[in-house]
Amino acid sequence: MIRLLPPNLINQIAAGEVVERPASVVKELIENSIDAGATAIDIAIREGGKNLILIEDNGQGMTREDLILAVDRHATSKIPDENLFNIQTLGFRGEALPSIGSVSRLEISSRFENSDLSWSLKVEGGQKLDPIPSTQKIGTRIEVRDLFYATPARLKFMKSATSEMNAIVDTVSRLAMAYPEIYFTLKDEKKTYLDLAVTLGDLSERRLQRLGTLMGKEFIENACAVNAERGEYRIQGFASLPTLNRSNANLQYLYVNGRAVKDKLLNTAVRISYQDFLARDRHPLVTLFLEVPPSEVDINVHPAKTEVRFRETEVIRSLIIGSLKQALMEAGHRAATTTSSFALKAMQPSISPQFRPSQTSFVMPTRPSPKPLYLAPRPQHNVGQPQQATAHVIQLEEPTPPEYETPSHEVKEHYPLGEARAQLHDTYIVSETKDGLIIVDQHAAHERLVYESLKTQFLASQAQSQYLLIPEVVSLSESAQKALLPHSEELKLLGLGIEAFGGEAVLVRETPAALGNFNVARLVQDLADEILELGQPLSLKEHLEEILSTIACHGSIRAGRSLTLTEMNALLRQMEETPHSGQCNHGRPTYVELKKNDIEKLFGRK
Fold it and tell me: What's CA 566's distance to the chain center, in Å?
């Protein structure tokens, strides 16, 4: 038997979609405050939101009539006309207030900005009471008490007060990142979690200051500015240097027209952009603000509005990847300052009365050896065989080398990595800069230089292929085949030649020579799966880059090799000219910089 559900049950079902936990309530109510033009939003929580969620703002407020309608289903101020694809607010989809009111004790007090009167309205378990006069100042105050009391079964899914509070802090932080012009405070009965004053400067400066408060000072010091436009699409934000990374992707944020969203598009784009610099289990810190025409994005995909659907997915992906790669390229040889901080913390000044300096503990070189010329490894293209590479150091004889001189003012002034002074343990180069010193891991640094040179030679042009004596047929699903074939030209440039073979298979005639013998069917299947999931074939390029990385490792200067001062300085100059030389191929730093001021602190001079 089919029957119509009662309004209160309908609201409770809607609440199940919208009000997943206290943090969901906080998100919906803060978004309403932002849409109301608030410049200050105060949030108070008790028992992780189970007992009380109180949010007060100084927005435009509501009239008595608006207040009555606000808690009714299908009533909203967020849609100015009948066009669902022209929504320029944060609200609408969730119909939050009637949903929240159906599962809690809700009280709303509000005063419209042009009115001398304020009103208060209560909703208990879905039952709306008549509004009464109140003493509310301009703006709106919402109290949500006893969340889920009307649906006790939902209480079983509530986590501890600490866990729920952590989720609320994360929710408020995500919203605060996008709105640095709004003052946010968040507290519970024990402490104040957030007190975020309005930041100053232009929009980019304000955002970076707010991000620094929420993501840490180290993010400000090691962030690369991201800024790009493509037609009506614009992206702005910040991404960390590869050497500042984490074991998870929790500190990666994407905003679409001011709305915080969780989208695999971001994860894919970041992975592609950083795949040259980080191991797969390490993740950079990224916050991106994407602005697109409202008609080009559907925000009504998910009840909680945390997911969106783009009309031009490829344009968005290309814009994100291109802007991130450009930002990393402009960073040049920079490495994260956190490496220096770790080094300084590890240094513990000590005094030992039994210390006796060795007579041969350190020897300063007195004259440089002939100047070397570093040649990048050159891949040998033999069809059917893995590519090999060799690195050479050619000595240019000088009949009468000059005596060694202390670093010149010009070198320290104009070269960021300074001038080499010594080598430690035949592994680390010590360089003096204008205002400190630098310690370089010679193997990691040269490995990066060799890799960048190899990549330019190998990946910028068509990769060498090896023809299979017997072409291999790889069976796929029909959907996988249709997803893979449009990328055949792209794969051809990387050395993989495929073509259609029947309705659910592809024929592989060529494979990248650099990969030698490998499981062709598994690679093709992985590529098809990635395209279906991510829209981008990553496996082949990652395999090739792993080969290049291995070649670079074997073709670079090894730890334990003694270098002349001239060789050391040649390496430093090449690092300064090579993008991404501040980190090795796995995201570890290639050098550590210690400022003179920090060194003086170690010795108690400051």
Answer: 39
Pairing outcome for strands 392-395 and 245-246: unpaired
How far apart CA 222 and CA 240 sit, in angstroms, is: 6
What is the Cα–Cα distance from 459 to 443, expressed in whole angstroms?
23
Per DSSP, the three-state class of 486 is helix
**pLDDT tens, residue by residue, 504-530:** 899 999 988 766 777 888 888 888 887
Full-prediction pTM beyond 0.90?
no
Q: Which residues of 501-515 are buried (b: 16+ CB within 10 A; e: fewer)?
A: beeebbebebbbbbb
Longest dimension (CA), the chain: 104
CA angle centred on 417, ends 412 and 420, rounded to 5°:
75
Mode of pairing for the β-strands spanning 183-188 and 40-46: parallel
Domains and CATH numbers, the chain: 7-79+90-196 (3.30.565.10), 203-330 (3.30.230.10), 339-346+369-606 (3.30.1540.20)
Contact 555, 377 (CB under 8 A): yes
Which of 102, 81, 93 is CA-nearest to residue 32? 93
Region of poorest pLDDT, from 35-39, 252-256, 498-502, 577-581: 577-581
Place of tokens 């001062």: 565
Q: How many CA atoms lie within 13 A of 53 on its CB side?
A: 29
